[in-house]
Amino acid sequence: MKRISSTTRPANGLPLQPPRATALRGVAASAGRVCAAVLAALAAVAVASASATPPGAAPSTVAPGAVSGPASTAAAASQPVQFTLPNGLTVIVKPDRRAPTAVHMLWVRAGSIDEVDGTSGVAHVLEHMMFKGTRTLGVGEYSRRVSALGGRENAFTSRDYTGYFQQIPSAHLEEVMRLEADRFMHNQWADEEFRREIEVVKEERRLRTEDSPRALLYEQLNATTFIASPYRRPIVGWMNDLDAMTPEDVRDFYRRWYVPANAAVVVAGDVDPAEVRRLAEKHYGAIPARALPQRKPREELPQSGMRRIEFKWPAEQAYVALSFRTPRLSSFERTADNDDALALVVLAAVLDGHTGARLNRALEQGSDRVADSASAWAGLWARGPQTFGLAGIPAPGKTPEQLEAALRAEVARIARDGVSEAELNRVKTQWVASEVYKLDSVMNQARELGVFWSMGLPLDAGEQAIARLRAVTAEQVKSVAQRHFGDDQLTVGVLRPQPMEGKRRVRLPNAAAAAAAGSSAGVGATGTSAPARH
User: Fold this and answer.
1) Residue 294 carries which DSSP code?
2) pLDDT for 353-374, tens place per residue?
């Protein structure tokens, strides 16, 4: 039976612990702490903004800042090309001819943010059901055919989008485009297949959430941080909503959001844009256009006082998580919120962006250290509201209250004393180096372009972001540290360990039980996702 989970971060199972801080402890420190917001923000740093229209192809939309002329021909060959089919479906192509492989991704701008109360988790359940057949393919046949081509495939669900991908020899690109177009247009399955798969999703929730004290803490922290925003709900869904979910709930979500005007195909690798366009028109162009439902605004309410939850659960260590409401980057216009969002990303890197960063030096080292671990991260762009996070595990003999105070003291120190130019330059240099290495992956290139499309950002958003981040000044970092970390913007979550009872985890039958397990607030959702395993 196929198991598809939607889990983090980096970006991006469910991201049940918060994204870790930047992966900058060493140039390509994949084992380091990852701040997905930074990684997503800085995508495509190695990509120049050149473009060229393939011979015989219709004019296309390309990344801004394109150059032209003989000197740019070689560079332009690798730049992303974007066009829209008559039915509204967006297609983005990024040639990279270093190896005879290609990545094909279908992105749908529908995630848990598009769900309504009572059907939490339906976007993720639909992701599972998309592998259960079409009018012409039986259960599991899609995966068997991709495997027979020598490819691999999977899917992921996040708050903001759902994605499906295949990585195959480029010679077989047309076949996976045909299969994905068929699945997008003709997904269908029997009710009995849903009843089997919903049990898989429930077990995924048990394993990834209910068996993890920190996962449960972050659910409750998000439900307390957000009141009106759909981000308060977990991507995997509350267990009682999964218990009550029907096949028709899933089909309704599919019919509502899986329309060409709400989807994008991203192809990267050893491909020719003109040929991809021909194949897209052949296979995806036949999908009938349908109206996209109007999205109603569900803006988060202003916060006007500190919120605090305590979560008591069998665990070995305490844990402290601080969530500050902060601005998000909605565009590259020079507005106060956009400027602050970028400066907050730099602040997170100063605190926890490399070996020997401020949190590591001040909290994790020495005989009187206050933390076994401490981290910081900043949300940059998303369809919903963003937060700045601080978190850590108290050292033996230290209390959660001491660690909370120490985390806030490091931000207060920057608000008072600022940061040095040398400190700032170090994290900026590491950003550039890490992004050059990251973009060596064709999968990363395709994924970043899909994220940009999902957020309504230009194809060169990564390049624009890094240019803006490199221009952030020490004074800006000091300023955001002064203005965005007061009590009124803060929600605190504390995990209070209870006896392990032989390390047996108590599983929750539903979300109401989770709320009753020791919290003064409801239960909520966490971040974004990454490709899952099945």
Assistant:
1) P
2) 888 899 999 999 999 999 999 9
